[in-house]
Amino acid sequence: MRILLISALLVLCGCSSVKVAPNKLVVEKRWVRDTPDQDFLGGRRIHRFAPILLDKLVIVGNSIDAVIAYDRNTAHVKWRIPIKDGSEGGGYLAEGLLFFGASDGLLYAVVPETGKVMWTYPLKAEGLGKPVVKSGVLYILGGNNVAHALNAKTGKLMWIYNRREAGNISVRGASQPAVSGDLVLMGFSDGSLVALNKSSGTVVWEANLNHNKRFRDVDATPVLDGDMVYVSSYDGGLYAVGRADGKIYWTLEDGGYEEVILQNNTIYYSSTSGKTYALDKGSGKVLWQKENPGGVATGPTLYHGTIVVGELAGGLRFYDSRNGELLNEFEPGRGVTSRTTVDPKKNEIYFMSHDANLFALRVQWRRFAKDWPWE
């Protein structure tokens, strides 16, 4: 009877089908976990450790007490490594191991499936930066501006580069090294981008990017693209630098603390003034920009045609990568502090919040009926 009634109404309206709306980006919370082992009543901590995804696990560190692995489906804890003040900079998977620096002054090499610690190395400073591994060598910059190169399997030291500056004011960050050919590039808190010989640690060239501002830190990971390097300083700007000699080709006068992402000829960038940009990578011309209402945003990630950023005092925002149109947002409460990690095949996104909560979202494009034909 109901089918007959609907059919009659369709005939009366002269309609043959329901109108269909364009695709809509739908954001749904799958689960959320409070990562500290006990309630934390201390001061504000920034949980910058971007979640790391394995097939069945998500691994994350907080800045309070641990690095933890959760089952991606059930959110159950699979293993936990207690660490005083946790791990802030983030981790790196390579050589069958997970590597991360921690606030206890150690660099850890861990079996990611089990949490077994294979070796540790004394950084003698907070491990505020993410390591990187290339050709069996691990490179990491400690919070004291000392760079280390280690054998990734054994943790044996190969070389050290020391750039300590006693009088400098820092924002407590550290650049993840970037390896290109014979060079290792990394930023320092004195505003310099330095290219080191990857075998010896000797300086090949250095470029002073920011020397006039209070927070000169170059904490962003240098991003290499052909002959160019793109990197930002905290309150200086975003710079396009020649890989061979450190020459600055163009500058966007708006600082940042996380690496850019590239897609074709476009750079996507979050600044410390609370803006998200799309730029032409050749000239630095602004293609579009958005003011994030929740203030400073985490570094952007790409997800199915969107740019995803998390506001430190707001929520997660999804912008159309073509024009910056806001497509959707998600409010976790009290801000997003880590860059998002995306799994486009499973339509999942993970991030850490200001409250040290790990969020797992399902985000996908769906097509909905716009309205009934008689409306």
Could you explain the architecture of this structure?
By secondary structure, the protein is mostly beta strands. The protein has a domain at 20-35 and 261-375: Methylamine Dehydrogenase, Chain H. Helix content is 3%, strand content 46%. The strands form 8 sheets. The protein has a 4-stranded antiparallel β-sheet, with no helix packed on it. Strands 2-3-4-5 form a 4-stranded antiparallel β-sheet, with no helix packed on it. The two termini are 21 Å apart. Residues 1-18 have low confidence and may be disordered.
Helix content range: under 10%
Number of helices: 1
Mean pLDDT: 90
Shape: globular
- List how many beta strands DSSP finds: 32
- Beta fraction of the residues? over 45%
Structural class: mainly beta
- How far from one another are the termini? 21 Å
CATH homologous superfamily of the domain at 20-35 and 261-375 - what is it?
YVTN repeat-like/Quinoprotein amine dehydrogenase
The largest pleated sheet is described as:
4 strands, antiparallel
- Under CATH, the topology of the domain at 20-35 and 261-375 is which? Methylamine Dehydrogenase, Chain H
Q: What's the gyration radius in Å? A: 23 Å
CATH architecture field of the domain at 20-35 and 261-375 = 7 Propeller
Describe, in short, the structure shown.
This protein is mostly beta strands and 375 residues long.
Provide tags for this entry.
1 helix, globular, disordered N terminus
Could you outline the blueprint of secondary structure elements for this entry?
Blueprint: H1 2-13, E1 19-34, E2 52-53, E3 57-61, E4 66-71, E5 77-82, E6 91-94, E7 97-101, E8 106-110, E9 117-122, E10 132-134, E11 137-141, E12 146-151, E13 157-162, E14 178-180, E15 183-187, E16 192-197, E17 203-208, E18 223-225, E19 228-232, E20 238-242, E21 248-252, E22 261-263, E23 266-270, E24 275-280, E25 286-291, E26 301-303, E27 306-310, E28 316-320, E29 326-330, E30 341-343, E31 348-352, E32 357-371
